[in-house]
Design a protein that fits this description.
Blueprint: E1 18-19, E2 22-30, H1 37-43, H2 48-54, E3 67-75, E4 79-81, H3 88-94, H4 99-105, E5 118-120, H5 153-163, E6 169-178, E7 203-205, E8 216-219, E9 223-229, E10 238-242, H6 246-252, E11 255-261
Parallel strand pairs: 6-10, 7-9
Antiparallel strand pairs: 1-4, 2-3, 4-5, 6-11, 7-10, 8-9, 8-11
Length: about 260
């Protein structure tokens, strides 16, 4: 059954570390076949959380013909001073812009930013100020010679890869497993990944309040993956890992694993 979604337009206050002003303007769109809430949020440069809030949505489900109101921010010349603990991902989410735009506006060739740098967050180019790096590469520990059995090659390779990347957060979670053809599942993730066409995709379902959608993660016993899906039962420190078959999901069962958020 189709439904018309009314909206509440909220204008967020700009952080005291940003220079400039924003004016909000609203527009209404009609959901088309193939649209996802994530895709619409990215296309219109708003966060998934804000888009749901604007339209009083409690889930990610939308229907063809639905009317969505989108409040877009007309950005003036704004600059943001990088603080300790910042990353390009956090700044992009804060100002509802993409990481690629941030890098383009500020002539960045990598995701490394410096504390004290002044970044354009609205399209005006600015040169980053050299200072202390916000993201530091973690040193790779040398292998120690022991009498213990060596880990499997694939596991060792995944652990080595994650060790070379900046770890934003590490936690212990309860992990279950699912497949694209489980009953009641469309096979299309909250961010638009088609698991039916990509049965071997390394994807996990998360609570976006704990692990942001789009984050690259390393899951103990599973490897590197993308937080690209959500689920009604996935709340708090709980994840659901995608596997190709029901037998693999059954074999996974329920276990406690360590998760590293890499970006």
């Amino acid at each position: 059954m189709k439904k018309t979604i009314m909206s509440l337009v909220a204008v967020a206050a700009i952080s005291s570390t940003a220079i400039g002003a924003q004016q909000a303007s609203a527009k209404e769109i009609t959901v088309q076949k193939g649209d996802t809430l994530w895709g619409i949020s990215q296309k219109n440069d708003v966060s998934l959380k804000d888009l749901k809030g604007m339209n009083n949505l409690s889930t990610d489900m939308i229907y063809v013909g639905d009317k969505l109101t989108i409040s877009s921010k007309e950005k003036t010349q704004e600059q943001y001073k990088v603080q300790k603990g910042d990353s390009l991902w956090k700044i992009a989410q804060k100002f509802n812009v993409s990481i690629s735009d941030l890098k383009s506006w500020n002539n960045l060739n990598s995701d490394i930013i410096m504390i004290g740098s002044t970044l354009s967050v609205a399209g005006q180019r600015s040169a980053p100020v050299s200072s202390e790096p916000v993201q530091k590469q973690e040193p790779v520990q040398k292998e120690q010679t022991t009498k213990k059995a060596a880990p499997k090659k694939e596991t060792a390779k995944a652990e080595s890869s994650s060790a070379n990347q900046s770890v934003q957060k590490e936690m212990t979670v309860t992990a279950t497993a699912y497949t694209a053809n489980d009953g009641g599942i469309s096979g299309i993730t909250a961010t638009g990944v088609n698991l039916n066409k990509n049965p071997n995709a390394k994807v996990i379902a998360v609570d976006p309040n704990v692990i942001p959608l789009g984050s690259k993660v390393y899951v103990e016993g599973y490897g590197e993956a993308i937080a690209a899906d959500t689920g009604g039962a996935i709340k708090g420190n709980k994840i659901d890992v995608h596997v190709p078959s029901k037998s693999q999901a059954k074999n996974w069962g329920v276990k406690s694993v360590k998760v590293k958020v890499l970006n």
